[in-house]
Fold this sequence. Notes:
Structural class of chain A: alpha+beta
Shape of chain A: globular
Oligomer: homodimer
CATH superfamily of the largest domain in chain A: L-amino peptidase D-ALA esterase/amidase
Number of strands of chain A: 15
Helix content of chain A: 25-40%
Largest interface: A-B, 65 and 65 residues
Number of domains of chain A: 2
CATH topology of the largest domain in chain A: L-amino peptidase D-ALA esterase/amidase
Mean pLDDT of chain A: 92
Largest sheet of chain A: 8 strands, mixed
Radius of gyration of chain A: 22 Å
Order of helices and strands of chain A: EEHEHEHHHEEEHEEHEHHHEEEHEEH
Amino acid sequence: MHIPEGFLFSAIACGIRKRDKLDLGLILCQNKGVASGVFTRNSVKAAPVIIGKKHLRSSVTRAILVNSGVANACTGEDGLHRALKLIEETAKLLKISPEELLPASTGVIGEPLPVETIIPKLPILIETLSTNNYSLFAQAIMTTDTFPKIVSKTTKDGIALLGIAKGAGMIAPNMATMLAFILTDASIQKEDLRSLLVRGVENSFNRITVDGETSTNDTVYALASGKKQVDDWDDFADSFQRTLRELAYLIVKDGEGASKVIRIVVKGAKTKEEAKILARAVAESPLVKTAFYGEDPNWGRIFASLGKTGIALDPSEVELYLNKVPWIQNLKPQGAEKTFKEELAKSEIELLINLKKGKQSYEIFTCDLTEEYIRINASYRS
Amino acid sequence: MHIPEGFLFSAIACGIRKRDKLDLGLILCQNKGVASGVFTRNSVKAAPVIIGKKHLRSSVTRAILVNSGVANACTGEDGLHRALKLIEETAKLLKISPEELLPASTGVIGEPLPVETIIPKLPILIETLSTNNYSLFAQAIMTTDTFPKIVSKTTKDGIALLGIAKGAGMIAPNMATMLAFILTDASIQKEDLRSLLVRGVENSFNRITVDGETSTNDTVYALASGKKQVDDWDDFADSFQRTLRELAYLIVKDGEGASKVIRIVVKGAKTKEEAKILARAVAESPLVKTAFYGEDPNWGRIFASLGKTGIALDPSEVELYLNKVPWIQNLKPQGAEKTFKEELAKSEIELLINLKKGKQSYEIFTCDLTEEYIRINASYRS
C-alpha cells in the first residue's frame, strides 16, 4: 500500500466504552495541510460537527482526532466544552493551534465524552505516531463495523490517496453514520479540494443506504499534505472520486447484518430527481430488502415501492433486469423463477429498473435487511 | 356482539394460494345500501382498486367481495378482465347489477387471480350467507395477520356498527396493506358517509405505521343498510370514528413480528405539518423501533430521528416522557436507567415528545421492529 507522504497515524485504547478496544485515533500532517469537510444534514448536530465546521475556516490544518464509543451528540454546552478541552490538550502536546485540529466522534448519543480518562493518555497517542499505524487508526474508529475500511490509490503522477472510513448502520443518503477521511500528498488549493469533495460525496456517500437513518455525527474530511505537484488534474480527480466510491461501497458491504450488496439503477426517467426518488424508495423499502435477503424474486414489491412515491407510472411499461438478465417485461417474468432465485443468491446484485419514460438515470447502493440488523440494534448499547 | 341489521356474510376456501385457508369472503346488504370508499395513494393500483373506485359511483351498493392470497396488482389488462369476470359471475348469482358490488383483494402482487378455480365455488359462497358468518369473513381476508380484527359498537339510539379489517405488514400512513370494512344499519346520505369516512381514515388508518410501506391494494369501504334512523348525529359520528381508530390500533398491534404498540405524540410544535413530519420520522425509524424492541432507553436515537427531518430544533429544549414519566429534560435522563427500562418492558408504550416551540400536536401509532418481521417477509411467498 502506497501511503501519502507527510502523514503519521496512531491509535490507543482509552476505555471510552469498552476496555481494550482501540477508541482514539490521530492523524498528523507533518507540514501545513489543506483541508475540506462535508457534514451531516441532521439538524441535531454533534459537538465535533459544530467545532469541525468552524475549524475548517483555518487556512492550515495539521491534525484529525477521532474517538469512537461516544458520539458527543445531544450533550449541549457541556459536550462542546469537553470536545474543546480535548482539542486544546491535544493541540498543546502537538504544538499546533487548536483551530488546526479537526475533531470527529462516533458512538452512543447523549452520553458525556470522558475527557478525564482520555487526556492522561494523549502523550502515548502522540509518542506512537508513525507512518504505518494507519490500520490501527482505521480500527479505532470502528463501532459496529466488522472490518476496517481502507482504500488506497496512486495516480499516474505518483500522487497517493488513502481513504479510511467507518460505517455501518444509520446509513442513508445525505451521508450516513459514517466517518471518512481522505488523505493525499497532492498540492492543492483549498477551494479545489472543496469542490472535489462536495462532488465526490454526492456520487458516493450520498448514494448509499443501509436503513434510511441519518446520524448526528456524519463527517467526511479531506486533508492534503501538499508534498506533490498535480500535473494531470483529471487523473487526480478521477482517483479521488474512485477512492470515495470504493469507501462508500465498503460501508454498504458492511451494513449492519447485511449479507448482500445491491446496486439499484433507475433509468429512463423523465427527470434526475424522479429517478433519484424512485431509486431511493426501492433501496429503502424493508419489503424489497427482506425479499432480497430471502432470495425471493417477489418483483411485485419492487413495483409497490416505486408506486408508493406517488410518481405516476405505467407498470406495464416498466422493465426490470437482474444482473443484466431480463426479469420483468410487460408485467411478466421473462424466465423461470429458478433463474432469478439463482441471481438473487449472489452476494452482489444489480437491479436495473427501466421506466422507458425519458433519458435520466440514478444509481444507489443498498443492502439486504436481515435478522442480524435487528439483533445488532436491539442491543447496541449493552 | 350486536351485528348491524340487513347484512349477511359468508366465506369459503378456494385454494387461491393455500389449500383449506378461507380466502374468499362476501358481505351482502339485503336492501339498497349506501357506500363510500377510500383507497391507496400508491400510483401502482391493483385492479380491484380501479374497479372499486368506479363502482362507488353507483347510488346503490349491495355487496362486497374480497379475496386474499393474490392481490391482483401489477396484472395489467388481464387483471382487470379477471376481476370483472368474477364480479359479473357473482352479481349474476346474487341477482344484482355488477356496479352494485365492490371488490377488494390482498396478497402477492403480480400473480393472476385464478378465476377459473373461484367461479365454480361461488354458489356455495352464496348459499352459506348468514348473519353469524362475519367472523369467517374476517378470517378469509387475513394474510400474515395472526388474529382476525373485528370491532363492534352500538350508539345510544341502538344503531350498530361493525368493523372488520386485516393488516399486518406494508402498513404506513396513507393507508397500509390493509383492508377495512365498516358496516352500519344507519340510514345515511352518501355524501355524509363519505365525509365521515374521509375524516375517520385521516385520524385512524393514516396514523399507523408498521414499516413505512404503502400497498397497491389499500381499501376502506363503508356500507350502510339504512335500516335505522340517526337521531343523535354526534353520537353516531363518534362511534364511527372510534370503530376506525380501534381497528387501526388492532392492525398495529398485529404488525408483522411486533411485540409492542407504541403511541407517539409530538406536542408543542409550531405547525401541525411539522408535528406530523417529526412524529412520523420517529415512528418509522428502524433504530428507534429496534431500541424499543430491545427495551433499551437509548434516547439519543429519538433525537437523531427528529433531526434527520432537517426541521430546526434545539435539542436542549426538547422533553421526552415515557408513559407519562419524565424521561429527558435539558438533555439529561430524569431518573435511573432501570426506571425507563421497566417502562419499555410494557407491551403498550406512550412516547410524548414536547418541542416547546408552539401549540400544535400530532399522534401516530407504531410498533417495534423484531427479527420476526424479517423472518415473515424473507419468506412470505414460500
